[in-house]
Amino acid sequence: MALRIVNLGVDIATPTGKLMLNVLGGVAKFEREMMLERHREGIAKAKSGGAYKGRKPTARAKADEVKALAATGLSMSTIATQLGIGKGSVHRALSAKEA
Questions:
Q1: Which stretches make up the Resolvase/invertase-type recombinase catalytic domain (predicted)?
Q2: What is the domain range of residue 82?
Q3: How far is residue 59 from each of residues 9, 31, 73, measured CA to CA in Å?
């Protein structure tokens, strides 16, 4: 059993077909590595310019609001909806209060 790429005329049962498959694989790997290198360089450039800071931690910033709303007796779902954060974030904020 052998792989045959009809459009390219490649049949890996032959030495020439095996060579072509290896060359195509090598070119694909090279291109992938070049893309990743350009991606890393772009991130490094953005970080040095102060533009790449990642996502802001909205839930941690609202921990005091979560605790205040929980003290009024609101449910975790209601607090999450009001503040625009997930229920898990509300739970973590309230667990941090106890610790």
A1: 1-50
A2: 58-98
A3: 57, 39, 19
